[in-house]
């Protein structure tokens, strides 16, 4: 359980898992249960949309050739600039991380469901678990991650392996998570277990509200 460093009114469940573990399928199940989902990856894209503070700062720093013809961010060009230059990477992180964090906190606070789910692939790596009351790891064997991701993203097994290596190990995530949901089986079974977990989270959230009044 993360230590909370910002005031959040809602009870927050942190949802994480490595690439290809099926976080989206599970977060969709939470949405079907009428629980608000805040997705860190979507927010990371929103803070660099056209006319955003983030994109305007990137244009001022790198010039207009960082844009695609339609005015959106050329992510491939940006990746090249930050992978070949440590200072550029440091500058970009210093710009984007606070913007992403601010939007995540605002969205967590604005949620009106009984509790709110924060989905982040790097929940533990980026210390986002400090905003969570409880964490849930979506877990599959590494071999399944590799197979699913290579198929889904039409990429090589070597590329997928290097992404997995860059993330926190499966064992470390299992140690850190409060709950673990096995997603290497029929989705109906995953859904049935998720409904049980959901009932627990409703109970925890209600209890925390009762205690705070």
TrEMBL record:
Chief subcellular location: cytoplasm
InterPro entries on file: Depp_CoAkinase, P-loop_NTPase
GO BP annotations, alphabetical order: coenzyme A biosynthetic process
Keyword tags: ATP-binding, Coenzyme A biosynthesis, Cytoplasm, Kinase, Nucleotide-binding, Transferase
GO CC term (a single one): cytoplasm
Documented EC number(s): 2.7.1.24
Compartments, as annotated in UniProt: Cytoplasm
Molecular function via GO: ATP binding; dephospho-CoA kinase activity
Residues binding ATP, per UniProt: 20-25
The keyword Transferase appears for this protein: yes
Catalytic activity entry: 3'-dephospho-CoA + ATP = ADP + CoA + H(+)
Pathway(s) per entry: Cofactor biosynthesis; coenzyme A biosynthesis; CoA from (R)-pantothenate: step 5/5
Record's function text: Catalyzes the phosphorylation of the 3'-hydroxyl group of dephosphocoenzyme A to form coenzyme A.
NCBIfam families: dephospho-CoA kinase
Membership in a protein family: Belongs to the CoaE family.
UniProt-recorded name of the protein: Dephospho-CoA kinase
Originating organism: Pseudoalteromonas carrageenovora IAM 12662
């Amino acid at each position: 359980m993360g230590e909370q460093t910002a005031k959040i009114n809602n009870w927050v469940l942190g949802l994480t898992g490595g690439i290809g573990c099926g976080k989206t399928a599970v977060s969709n199940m939470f949405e079907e249960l009428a629980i608000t989902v805040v997705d860190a990856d979507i927010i990371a894209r929103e803070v660099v949309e056209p006319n955003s503070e983030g994109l305007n700062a990137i244009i001022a720093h790198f010039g207009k050739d960082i844009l695609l013809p339609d005015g959106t961010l050329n992510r491939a060009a940006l990746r090249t600039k930050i992978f070949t230059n440590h200072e550029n990477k440091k500058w970009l992180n210093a710009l984007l991380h606070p913007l992403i964090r601010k939007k995540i906190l605002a969205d967590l606070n604005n949620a009106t469901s009984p509790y709110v789910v924060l989905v982040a692939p790097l929940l533990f790596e980026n210390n986002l678990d400090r905003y969570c009351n409880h964490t849930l790891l979506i877990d599959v064997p590494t071999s399944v991650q590799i197979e699913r991701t290579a198929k889904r993203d039409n990429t090589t097994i070597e590329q997928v392996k290097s992404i997995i290596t860059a993330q926190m190990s499966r064992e470390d995530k299992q140690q850190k998570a409060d709950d673990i949901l096995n997603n290497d089986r029929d989705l109906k079974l995953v859904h049935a277990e998720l409904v049980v977990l959901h009932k627990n989270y409703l109970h925890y959230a209600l209890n925390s509200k009762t205690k705070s009044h």
